[in-house]
Specification:
By secondary structure, this protein is an alpha/beta fold. It contains 14 helices and 13 strands. The strands form three sheets. A six-stranded parallel β-sheet has the order 3-2-4-5-7-6, with helices on both faces.
C-alpha cells in the first residue's frame, strides 16, 4: 500500500492533481466540498497550494484574477450542485473578460445518475452558455486527458473559461497507473498571423492616412509579440489608446486626446477590443473614418460597424506584420501635425481638470481623490476599480502600468 492505495494503483483525484501539476498549476481556489475532496489530497502531495475561500463565487473570481495576471488558466474547484451554481457569475465574467480559466465541478456518482443523489443537478446545461467548453468525464483513466484538453481549450484562440464535471465515483475510483498516462502541458497561445493580402491592404491604408488612431485592448497583453506595438507606433507615427488589461502597455501613451482623435480621424485601427458600449457600438469613431479591425475572434470584425479591412489574427503578430509590410506615412509632416494637435488638446483638457484635481472641497472631489491615490501607488501595483462613475473618473487620472508576465 502507498498513501492508502495499492501499489501501482492511483485514484481519480490524484490523477487530476498530477495533470494540474503537469500543466503548471501552482494554486487552486476552492470551497472545500465532499464531492471534490479527492483532488485536494493529490494537490497537497504535489505541493499545489489549496486556497479555501468562504464562498465558491470568491474561488472562481480568484481563478479569473489568476488568469488575468499570469496568462495561464486559473483553477477553481467547486463541489456539486450549489457549489457550481455559486460560481456561475464569476465564470460568466471570465468569459466576457477573455480570461483563461479551468473550473472543475463535482457531481453525484455516475452509477446513480438521475436517481436523486446528494446535490445532483444538470450543471452542464448551466455552464455551457458561460464557458467556451463544458464536458463531463466518465472514465477515471481519462481524467489526465480531459484536464489537459481543458487547459488547451482555455488558451486556444480567444482565451476563456472551460468547465470539467467529474462524478464522484469517477473521481474516487482506482485505476492502474499505466492505464492513465499524463499529458504534456498545453502550450501558451501561439501567434496567429493574418493573411498577407489583408496585411498589405491595411498597411496601404495606414501609409495614406493623414489622421490615424489606434485602439488596443486586452488581447495585446497576451500576444507572444506584444513588443511589436511600441515599434509599430513609432514607425507609423500614430497615437495609441489602450483599454482593459492593455492600459500602460509600452507603445500606448497618455499625451494625445482620445476624444478628438476618434472624432476627427480618417482611419482607426481597432485591435483586440470590441466595438461595444464603451465605444458607443462604433459611433464614437468618425462616421467617414475607414476602419481596420483585428481580433482573435473571427466573429468580432464587422460587429456593429463594417470595416474596410477585417482580420482574424493575434494583434501583436498583426502589428509585426504591418511593420514588415511597411506602415510609415507617405506624408510625415501631416502626421506630425496631427500628433501635435492631439497633444495640444490633451494639455488643454488637463488644464480644465486642474480645479478638480486640486480642489479642497468637502466631500472630496473624485478627481482629487484619484490623484492622491495615484501619487501613493507603488510601482507594479494591482489596482481594482468598482463603482461605475467613480471608476470612469479615476481612469482619467490613474495611470496604469501593464505588467507582462515573465513567461512572455
Amino acid at each position: 500500500m502507498l498513501g492508502g492505495m495499492p501499489m501501482g494503483m492511483v485514484s481519480g483525484g490524484h490523477l487530476v492533481a498530477r495533470q494540474l501539476h503537469r500543466e503548471g498549476a501552482k494554486v487552486v481556489f476552492t470551497l472545500c466540498g465532499g464531492h471534490v475532496m479527492g483532488i485536494y489530497d493529490g494537490c497537497l502531495d504535489l505541493g499545489i497550494r489549496v486556497v479555501d475561500t468562504r464562498h465558491e463565487q470568491a474561488a472562481a473570481f480568484a481563478a479569473d484574477a489568476w488568469g488575468r495576471l499570469t496568462g495561464r488558466p486559473g483553477v477553481a474547484i467547486v463541489t456539486a450542485g450549489p457549489g457550481v451554481t455559486n460560481a456561475v457569475t464569476a465564470v460568466a465574467t471570465a468569459l466576457r473578460a477573455q480570461s483563461p480559466m479551468v473550473v472543475i465541478g463535482g457531481q453525484g456518482p455516475l452509477a446513480a445518475a438521475g436517481r436523486g443523489s446528494l446535490q445532483e443537478m444538470d450543471t452542464l446545461s448551466l455552464m455551457r452558455p458561460v464557458t467556451k467548453w463544458a464536458v463531463q468525464v466518465q472514465e477515471t483513466a481519462r481524467l489526465p486527458e480531459w484536464i489537459h484538453l481543458a487547459f488547451r481549450r482555455a488558451l486556444a484562440g480567444v482565451p476563456g473559461p472551460v468547465y470539467v464535471e467529474i462524478p464522484l465515483d469517477v473521481l474516487m475510483n482506482l485505476v492502474e497507473e499505466s492505464q492513465a498516462p499524463l499529458w504534456d502541458p498545453a502550450p501558451d497561445r501561439p501567434a496567429a498571423p493574418a493573411p498577407s493580402a489583408q496585411v498589405e491592404a491595411a498597411a496601404a491604408l495606414l501609409r495614406e492616412a493623414r489622421r490615424p488612431a489606434v485602439l488596443v485592448g486586452s488581447q495585446i497583453r497576451w500576444s507572444p509579440d506584444w513588443q511589436a506595438l511600441a515599434e509599430f507606433a513609432q514607425a507609423a507615427l500614430v497615437p495609441v489608446y489602450a483599454s482593459g488589461l492593455a492600459r500602460g502597455i509600452p507603445g500606448a501613451g497618455f499625451l494625445h486626446s482620445r476624444k478628438l482623435a476618434l472624432r476627427e480621424a480618417d482611419l482607426v485601427l481597432v485591435a483586440g477590443t470590441p466595438l461595444d458600449f464603451r465605444l458607443q457600438y462604433g459611433h464614437s469613431i468618425a462616421p467617414d473614418a475607414r476602419l481596420i479591425q483585428v481580433d482573435l475572434d473571427p466573429a468580432e470584425p464587422g460587429r456593429n460597424r463594417t470595416p474596410a479591412v477585417g482580420v482574424a489574427a493575434d494583434p501583436g503578430t498583426f502589428f509585426r506584420q504591418l511593420l514588415e509590410a511597411g506602415c510609415a506615412p507617405r506624408d510625415p509632416a501631416a502626421r506630425e501635425a496631427w500628433l501635435d494637435r492631439l497633444r495640444e488638446e490633451e494639455a488643454a483638457r488637463l488644464r480644465r481638470m486642474e480645479p478638480g484635481l486640486t480642489s479642497g472641497a468637502s466631500p472630496v472631489d473624485p478627481l482629487r481623490l484619484a490623484r492622491e491615490i495615484d501619487q501613493w501607488l507603488p510601482d507594479r501595483a494591482t489596482v481594482i476599480g468598482d463603482g461605475g462613475d467613480f471608476v470612469a473618473t479615476a481612469a482619467y487620472v490613474i495611470r496604469g502600468c501593464c505588467e507582462i508576465p515573465v513567461s512572455q
